[in-house]
Amino acid sequence: MTNLVERYVAAWNETDPAARAKAVAGVWTEDATYTDPLADVAGHAGIAAVIEGAQGMFPGLVFTPGELYDAHHGIARFTWHLGPEGGEPVATGFDVVELAEDGRISKVLGFLDKVPAA
């Protein structure tokens, strides 16, 4: 599970479009869905676009794994942070994921616990 979260976070931090597409394909199934308060997309291209959009909204910030990792019956949840490298997070949240037979993510339901002030 920890390896999956590390690869998931790495995909969110990948700024090169070709490398990001490869990372997304390695973490999510082809028909995966991603839903959070700001997005509702399906497929690799949709997920990669959401990641690119988040990077555009928060330039220079990086995602890091949070403290919580838990999994059972093909479902997992974990927390994440977004902030300057080595600094205090400006955003935090948790994601609940469904895992496919091959270990990749087939569905993400994301929640935002802390967001920057507008």
Automatic annotation (TrEMBL):
This is Nuclear transport factor 2 family protein. InterPro entries: NTF2-like_dom_sf, SnoaL-like. Pfam families: SnoaL_2 (PF12680). Residues 5-107 form the SnoaL-like domain. Gene3D superfamilies: 3.10.450.50.
